[in-house]
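Reviewer comment 2.1 asked that we show a complete input and output for one of the modelled complexes. We chose the WTA case, as it is the one discussed in the main text.
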Amino acid sequence: MIKKGELYYPDKNFQKKALINNRAIYKKASANPVKFWEGLAKEIFWQKKWKKAFEHKPPYFKWFVGGKINITESALDKNLEEKKNKVALIWEPEAVGERQRIFSYYDLFREVNRLANALKKMGAQKGDRIGIYSPMIPEVIISMLACARIGAVHAVVFSAFSPKALQVRLQDTEAKILITADGYFRRGKVVNLKQGADEGIKETKVEKIVVVKRAGNEIFFQPDRDFWYQDLIKNESDWCPAEAMDSEDPLFILYTSGSTGKPKGCVHSCGGYGVQAKFTAKWIFDLKEDDIFWSTADVGWITGHTYSCYGPLLNGATFVIFEGAPDYPDPGRWCEIIDKYGITTFYTAPTAIRMFEKYGVEYPRKYKLDSLQILGSVGEPIDKAAWQWYFKEVGREKCPLVDTWWQTETGGILITSLPGIGPFKPTFAGIHFPGVNFAILNEKGKSCKIGEQGNLVILPPFAPGLLRGIYKNPEKYLETYWSECGNKIYFTSDGACKDKNGLIRIVGRIDDVIKVAGHRIATGELESAIALHSDITECAVVGVADEIKGEVPVAFVVCKTDKSAENIKEEVVRQIRKEIGPIATPKEVYLVKDLPKTRSGKIMRRILRKLFTSEELGDLSALSNPESVEEIKLILR
Ligand code: WTA
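Response of the prediction step:
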């Protein structure tokens, strides 16, 4: 890498070999973004070509209108022509001594087809939603693809979410089939996932459960309702015709957190999402024939969907998925996996980087890491120290570091510098992906000046992979994304600014969403969970800075009974784990007499947040109970 002032550029050698190494692509794409995306769409397989590339009836839009597609044909069938025996997927189990599993494109193709046939026999049809609650095992990828093969809409629920969180999502999707596993390994222990699934399907429409045998743990098995995955596919045919999907038909629903308590089901389309997944993966990770790509995100999140499933497969690439915890059995595990497979592209979250930084340089220095060519970061702002550490200790100062900004809603990466072009600047994600038009607007709706912070928005024609709706909640879709700046501008809910080079720096969310270790959680979701506790009359949750996790939630609760602070903390933590899952566990729970409120009774979370920073609290005279702030200050001291 070449350093010029604060900016880093790929060296000549890297540049020369990179798939995209000429800035001209940006100009060409901006001149006619629709034509640009249309050109890319031609490189995937369509059963029938579209009639119109882009249609905009604000706030609604469509891409590749009239086209018929099944994304699994590009991800699997087409790869059989030249890459039949190429390794598609490598699965690394958590236990060090256990054998990895390797699937060629042909293996994957056959298994997906078999499962697709089995799902059909179970009654699944085009348009049906199918829930997936699975650990990181090959079968989760196979399940997603099998759904796509028959036109069923998959809704993956993160395996570490609680049964209650699973239930809420299954209720919303009205899925009749759930695919899960008996259990999986986490830090050497078996987690009984099936038990969670059994609980999670209560009061839902789920009639059948497909259970992958993974951990061999004992589970409750209900004949006629539960089916072993391995038995189901055993005698199925290797061929299942790919359902003809309309370009705009939904491919999947993935739930994410918004500013309220209820998770939102982001709906992604078959055509647009597919095109974007393929080309963002190809160009941003510079995927070439011999590369081995490893994105560490769990498939329960959008990063897992786009870069541990669709993106690499649509490029006929080889990729790794890992079942376990990154630092188990020791903090060298990730480096060991990089060396073991000769990973060329490594994509992870700043939280993980900060965690490894804390463990110390001896771990990365024990390993060669010389196969690495590109590093990626995603999910939260990466601070300068973590950037430098990652760049130096993992990438050995030779790998471009792509800081990639995107959201569950955008379906794929939309802001980052391309590895063969650059420039890279710590704490700046970079520039827009070719063919995507961003603006940063101030309160008046005008473009911000250099360095001025404002709202990050996307302008038409957006990107083909942008969400098409919130499942069964059209009002929320309009309100969240298309009302803040009018119905022709997509509102990201992120604050951002630009530097003189045009590089975009993401400052963070401007709504009540926090990123806890890169996981997206709404403070409202936590508040709804806490409010279910019968002794608690009021509560407020805010995100505060954390050295490793970026942000963590802290809760303030007002109790109507005489409970000790210790007891209430324990109960609130239990409540949140039950309703959402351990990832949302608050760092602290403060028992207070009163919460700061405006005269109209609105809880002033902004003030609570400021109590954790060095910021001035400002004028408290608008509060109906300024004394509450003093009381809380004493508790925090
Ligand atoms: C944040 C994750 C800074 C941002 C793919 C966004 C980032 C939210 C970055 C979406 C980045 C994502 N730098 N912040 N490179 N990438 N974010 O839906 O606030 O889990 O709105 O999607 O993560 O989170 P989500």
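Residues 105-121 form the longest helix (17 residues). We note this here for comparison with the apo prediction described in Section 3.2.
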